[in-house]
Amino acid sequence: MDSEIEQPKLAFDHFDLQKPLADAIKKIGFEYCTPIQAQSLVHTLQGHDVTGKAQTGTGKTAAFLITIINDLLLNPIKEERYIAEPRALIVAPTRELAQQIASDAQLLTYGCNMSVVTLVGGEDYAKQNRALDAKPVDIVVATPGRLLDFMSRRDLYLDHVEILVLDEADRMLDMGFIPQVKRIVRATPAKESRQTLLFSATFTQDILNLSEQWTYQPITVDI
């Protein structure tokens, strides 16, 4: 029986990342990419849409956060920005996952001068709204229900979203969130005008159909 050929490890400094982000990665102590990071960053850093098949704990969160942060640093907005118009949106099925993603985002944006806001149910709406209103927001991490609350009250606008991440799409499907997610996606720019990254632990026909609706010429990464 052939033993699996060990893939050479890919270091983060293989990628030409913006310096504040590269510094934050070093500060955290990340040196080498996990397989999902190595295989997806090659495409996502070039602006391609990706559908990634990956379990929790594979490092996919850092893969999409690095993509977002690098892109926002690379393309600073010169003109005046409005409050409550995020440049990147990450939608996750549960409050715990959204909070974990946001806490990773705080670490990776260290020294990058970016605002990360978490919008999840079960927490104080007014407090989350104040965080949105404090300064222009770069990255919003949200659960579908709370995100729709903010949209319906016109406390948040998604028409300037440059990068959309849909994490654990299969769990969102199982939890009955897809109608809500469809409404959210419709509120963002057309798929040709944004970068979309969709991650799922399984690729059922339903997930493939949704991926086709939401992504533009995606590259599939399967770990």
The total of beta strands comes to 7
Please give the largest β-sheet: 7 strands, parallel
Instruction: Give the percentage of residues in beta strands.
Output: 5-15%
Strand order of the largest sheet: 3-4-2-5-6-1-7
Oligomer: single chain
Query: What is the global morphology?
Result: globular
Fraction in helix: 40-55%
Taking pLDDT < 50 over at least 5 consecutive residues as the criterion, the unreliable ranges are: none
Number of helical stretches of at least 4 residues: 9
Order of helical and strand elements: HHEHEHEHEHEHHEHE
Protein structure class? alpha/beta
Mean pLDDT score: 95
Give Rg in angstroms. Answer: 17 Å
Report how far apart the termini are.
22 Å
Provide an overview of this structure:
The structure is a single chain. With 223 residues, this protein is an alpha/beta fold. It is 42% helix and 13% strand. It contains 9 helices and 7 strands, in the order H-H-E-H-E-H-E-H-E-H-E-H-H-E-H-E. A 7-stranded parallel β-sheet has the order 3-4-2-5-6-1-7, sandwiched between helices.
Quick description:
By secondary structure, the protein is α/β, with parallel strands linked by helices.
